[in-house]
Amino acid sequence: MSKVIRIGTRDSELALWQANTVKNKLKALGHKVKVISVKSTGDLILDKPLYEMGITGIFTKTLDVAMLNDDIDIAVHSMKDVPTALPQGIVQAAVLERANFLDILAFKKNEEFLGERDAIIATGSLRRKAQWLNRYPTHTVVDLRGNINSRYQKLVDNDWNGAIFAAAGLERIGLEPEETVGLTWMVPAPAQGAIMVVAKEDDEFVREACAELNHEPTDICTKLEREFLRILEGGCSAPIGAIATIDKENEVTLKGVLLTVDGKKKLEAEFTAPLGKHTYLAKDCANSILSRGGKLLMTYKEGTLENTKIFSTKNLTTAQEELFDADIKVKSEDFIKISSNRISTIILKKEIQNIVLTSQNAVEALIKSISPEELKFANIYCVGGKTKRMIKKYIGPVKHQEKDAKKLAEYLVEYMEGTEVTYFCSNLRLDDLPTILAENNIKVNEIEAYTTKHAPADVEEGVEGVMFFSPSTITSYLLKNTPNKVAYCIGETTATEAKKHFETVHVAKIPTVESVIELVNQAYGKN
Question: Annotated catalytic sites, by residue?
């Protein structure tokens, strides 16, 4: 063992920690080891987001060259930074046992901004940005570059609400802010939390030495995640996430996600197989996403759709877009921005006899504000099948459901026990329900569970029809556009508002997005 194994690494605190971890493990096995640090292109260019630089392997390329030039024997990387295709002559030598793979949000002051419309979040990762905007579409995401220490300092120095980091990175260097939230809903980067060792393919001595460091469960999981990434042909320039896990029963589960760069559209897939029969999980996951419009998502850019015939005032999923007949060109954008309000737990912990929920947004605001187990609602009344299903899933049974607020109010007047209801609503709620109840001497306690804000956009003159999903979307549309088009409405309440402005109004038979799409197809099928 006379050979000294030279470990190449970036010179950031985190990279050096990782290199020294490998160094100590090799020394414990009796090897002579030396650490050599160099700067990478990714460390030197800090004025551009990574995805704008058009380079994959930006943090590994310098070390690849050093290894091929025989200046170092192995290189140690955060595995998520390593391209799925290694340079010719360089191979994976080991993967260390994975640390915490979660993304975490470090924030200042408090978490109240999570329930507010406006907030500023910092991250240099397109994957994190896309997933954040998918969940919080009204927030602003700003670019954050540099090593982990400088990124955290920028959070301290700037007027941002929070910044997103890899939990493993903060933990490894002991930089763990007190105010953090684990983003369990955010799918991490493939191989996040894992440390990878690479070596020259023809250096048998070094490869055998590193093989003793390999952690097989981590190796299995990260291979699946990176294979999923490879099939989707993504890199630093695509919002792709993946995480594989092995449970106590030796069942392997892989979850993958692909988003558009603006976070407006998302496709997910999750597959499970017994250990030993898991090798096709990556292919199955990737193909599931590709078959549902994944290629379109990877090339999607706002405003690129030409000859648009139909405009939707609500963002459509890829699966929904595929329901339109082939000759119908569709563009969609949210004309209403929704943000949950933080509801006082003092109110929510009280025993309340009658609750009214007229949208899924209200349900989401409730479960964001308090653990559903703490709610003491005796009777829950709601509008819409989807709202009912969401209530049953997260809160409990529904006493009665109607298809619109007016019909629900009429039902309550006739059958409700008691003379008081608590109505969790939007700041832009319709008057029908509270007016009918008040006229019948039923007290309505209104609580603004979420905020609705108009977000109109200019619709091209050539668009022939517009899809509306609430009276608020009509109001928002008219702020910037004229009613010289056909209106396709999700229900009677929306249609009633549309008829005040549009000459031709069509109403879906069932109050679902898919039913409105069917309405459009039927209208064009008659032409």
Answer: 81
